[in-house]
Amino acid sequence: MTQLDILIMAAGKGTRMKSRIPKVLQRLAGRPLLHHVLDQAAHLQARSAIVITGHGAAEVEAATAGAASAGRTFELEFVRQEPQLGTGHAVQQAVPHLRDGGTVVVLSGDVPLTHADTLRSLVAASAGGQLALLTVTLPDPTGYGRIVRDTHDQVQGIVEHKDATEAQRAITEVYSGIMAVPARLLRGWLARLTNHNAQGEYYLTDIVAMAVADGVPVSAHRITDALQVAGVNSPMQLAELERAHQLRQARALMEQGVRLADPARFDLRDDARTGVRGELVCGQDVEIDVNCVFTGRVELGEGVQIGANCCIANARIAAGAVIHPFTHIDGEKLGATVGERALIGPFARLRPGAQLGREVHIGNFVEVKNSTLADGAKANHLAYLGDATVGERVNYGAGSITANYDGANKHRTVIEADAHIGSNCVLVAPVTIGAGGTVGGGSTIAKSVPPGALSVARGKQIIKENWQRPAKLPKG
Ligand code: UD1
Ligand code: CA
Fold first, then answer.
1. pLDDT digits (tens, 9 = 90+) for 247-263
2. Which domain does 10 fall in, by range?
3. How many domains does the chain have?
């Protein structure tokens, strides 16, 4: 089997994106376009990948060198093309870095959705020293290079749109920008390129006519799924490919039995902050309502139900838990866990280090950060639990908060099992409420309380009978 070396063209400007971010770093499912293309190199088990950079080269290289594609087995190298004098010129820059004896697969950094199987077929078509082109038939081929064939249907060359005659412009089979070619032949042809054409560019596509002239067989591997070779040139095209990619992911989950209320309203993304891959691992009978966004690695146990409009990142949700609508869970780097049969939301917020046990209830407008809630603990309304350790079956009243930050440092609050915290309490950390203790509503508790005690810390109630409210003063 011949060795594969991948060449990825990523020097172009992407003017139509109207963005300061280089086009190949625009994100699809949270992942830069170029990284999607590098994933293809990984799937192909290439021995090397050369990325040709130009516009925003330093930024593209910095964002790509470290962000390893998972299981990357190939060597990654960057070559700069300055100025950009065409696709042929781009590939010429890479030639001195190309290894001998392999097959080169040319890809574009802005074409993210090509299937690995398609590329494998293309590579197979180039076996034995042929030039293999990936082509597609488009109802509107405007702008693309046309595949010109002779009367025996043999490929004769590629004519760029701007150089094409009226008759050639009627051809609907176009070059996708993707080819597989033996390195040895590529070298020779590139050396002979000229820029005598409508755009004054060095066209990589001119090597096709050279192959024909040299008697090297040229094959066209024609596919019908245009999405696989669709490039991103504008925000609209980026959004179209995003939807197509998300639909693919939704389908794959549904084939595993996950019940999505609407596969068109589902998103699974990489975590752009950390580069953690978007991955949704589901047990049996998981149900996900519309408009949910999953980020990073999320695990949903058997029978988990996710209500509409939830955002869930880097979290583990155990079997039977129900996440009601409009809940936001983001474990960031620490992760967040929800125990079996827990009930969360609607409108709940779980932040990094939220670790909830079995049958925990977190209700509306409750925020939990870096806190452990043991089995059966409940905080049902309008509350904050930060840096807290909460025991089993604790009831944490509406409007209560842990004052965990003294302006300089964070401190822990410990609420032992079976304690009952009334409404509107402030627990000033560090502080411990002993097991089974009761804190009266409206208390500000700054000193620890032993088990079993009632603590009340609020102004004493005053009653003045027959109290006359001030009367309004006469006007003027
Ligand atoms: C090219 C093909 C055309 C094909 C089309 C498919 C040529 C001459 N034409 O068209 O037949 O139908 O792709 O999309 O190859 N790039 C560089 N350096 C350059 C120029 C381009 O790195 O100097 C990169 C771009 O960033 C892009 C890729 O090469 O990733 C293709 O360039 P683009 O200008 O989009 O292709 P076209 O010339 O339109
Ligand atoms: Ca061009």
1. 999 999 999 999 999 99
2. 3-229
3. 2
Domain shared by 162 and 30, yes or no: yes
Hey, whose CA ends up nearest to atom 32 of ligand 1?
87
Which residue's CA is minimally distant from atom 37 of ligand 1? Answer: 144
Q: Rounded to whole angstroms, how far apart are CA atoms 89 and 22?
A: 20
Residue among 50, 87, 194, 196 to mutate when testing ligand 1 (max atoms within 8 A of CB) = 87
The pTM of this model reads 0.94
Catalytic (active site) residue 381: yes
Q: Which two tokens stand for residue 231?
A: 């490039």
The set of residues, in sequence order, having a beta carbon less than 8 Å from that of 339 and lying 6+ positions away, is 318, 321, 356, 357, 358, 359, 360, 375
> Could you identify the residue written with the tokens 């917020």?
349
The pLDDT mean for the chain works out to 96
Nearest in space to 144 (alpha carbons), one of 52, 51, 226, 245: 226
Same domain, 42 and 179: yes
**CA of 37, nearest ligand number:** 1
Atom of ligand 1 nearest to the CA of 203: 8
23 CA: nearest ligand 1 atom: 26
Same domain? For 381 and 449 the reply is yes
Centre of ligand 1 to C-alpha 177, Å, is: 7
Single-letter amino acid, residue 327: T
Query: Is the same domain home to 212 and 348?
Result: no
